[in-house]
Fold this sequence. Notes:
Organism: Jeotgalibacillus soli
Shape: globular
Pfam family, one: ABC_tran
Largest sheet: 6 strands, mixed
CATH superfamily of the largest domain: P-loop containing nucleotide triphosphate hydrolases
CATH topology of the largest domain: Rossmann fold
Order of helices and strands: EEEHEEHEHHHHEHEHEEHH
Strand order of the largest sheet: 6-7-8-3-9-10
Structural class: alpha/beta
CATH class of the largest domain: Alpha Beta
Radius of gyration: 18 Å
GO biological process, one term: L-amino acid transport
Bound molecules: adenosine-5'-triphosphate
Keywords: Amino-acid transport, ATP-binding, Nucleotide-binding, Transport
GO molecular function, one term: ATP binding
Helix content: 25-40%
Amino acid sequence: xxxxxxxxxxxxxxxxxxxxxxxxEKNKINAIxxxxxxxxxxxxxxxxxxxxxxxxxxxxxxxxxxNIPVEKRVKLGIGHVMEGRRLxxxxxxxxxxxxxxxxxxxxxxxRNALLKINEIYKQFPxxxxxxxxxxxxxxxxxxxxxxxxxxxxxxxxxxxxxEPSLGLAPIIIDEVYQxxxxxxxxGMTIIISEQMAALALRISDVGYILxxxxxxxxxxxxxxxxxxxxxGLSSVxxxxxKV
Length: 243
Ligand SMILES: Nc1ncnc2c1ncn2[C@@H]1O[C@H](COP(=O)(O)OP(=O)(O)OP(=O)(O)O)[C@@H](O)[C@H]1O
């Protein structure tokens, strides 16, 4: 579904990604695991088009996309939920969804926007019930679901989520992860980045470990879990950066 070859991203003298090559498997939850600064956000931002690579290729559904703008990648089916629950806290839930919709589909008719938003309210009744409430008054988990919903409005086939569990209580992380599993069961391909390997491996089918911009380990859940159990991933699991 998504092939990444020899991807390199530099911020001035900093090599944030070095020769990253991966195959993202369709209809699976793919984890990108790494400590702070490993390059997870840079990788997701490069896939969605927010960051330009210095080198390398990204092909999505057989088409090279590394040179096409963000909005075209959205149209091709790539949705991105950025790190840090970015929403307009002093706007209503409804307006946040409208803004999210028009950010991704600037030319669409308002009627279509409202139809799509109503579908979201059916899928997530809590958002429908709180549609006139300021987004900042929602709980952390509800805010995360609102942000994911805004990305779902463009009906992505591939959803990128940057540290979706960050700052959430364990019970809320369970809810967000459950939602990701439901999306996968409807055919979506998902990439999540997480700092905590143990957390990511609860729901991921396959994963990649990034260290200082490089893929150092990759494999399916059982392989990565065996590394975790034998302490082979302890630096990642404990959050100790090897930098
Ligand atoms: N806009 C930027 N300008 C300069 N350096 C950057 C920029 N963004 C990231 N970096 C650097 O690139 C490297 C990779 O950062 P990145 O944010 O991709 O890592 P990360 O694994 O997502 O970490 P975090 O969990 O903190 O978001 C780090 O050394 C970081 O300091």
